[in-house]
Amino acid sequence: MRRNLHLLILGVIFLMLGPVIYWIVRGDDDRYIRIINTPSLDALGSGPVMLWVFVIPTVIGVILLLMFAVRMMNNRE
Questions:
Q1: How far apart are the C-alpha atoms of 15 and 9, rounded to whole Å?
Q2: Three-state SS sequence of the chain
Q3: Per residue of the chain (77 residues), what is the pLDDT tens digit?
Q4: Distance (Å, rounded) from C-alpha 47 to C-alpha 30?
């Protein structure tokens, strides 16, 4: 059960990660300008990079939650 709980917690964290990163980057106009003017973070200003930053954690979160659901169903049998 404890290992399954870790999957649930990690799944929820990964699902929240995309919107949190989006909010950090795009939440304030001044912060957004500072981020995209920083040489190492300038790619975060582009649409495709922000899409991947949002999609990848969401997909990982969904996979972890599905793994949690499958393990919980297998434990009940």
A1: 10
A2: CHHHHHHHHHHHHHHHHHHHHHHHHHCCHHHHHHHHHCCCCHHHHCHHHHHHHHHHHHHHHHHHHHHHHHHHHHHHC
A3: 667 899 999 999 999 998 898 888 888 889 888 888 888 777 777 778 888 888 999 999 999 999 999 999 888 76
A4: 18
Give dist(CA 57, CA 65) in Å, integer.
Answer: 12
- How far apart are alpha carbons 43 and 40 in whole angstroms? 8
Six token digits for residue 13: 């964290």
Distance CA 49, CA 41 (A): 11
- In the numeric block, which tokens belong to residue 64? 């972890």
Residue with the two structure tokens 């990163």: 21
Which pLDDT score, from 0 to 100, does residue 77 have?
A: 62
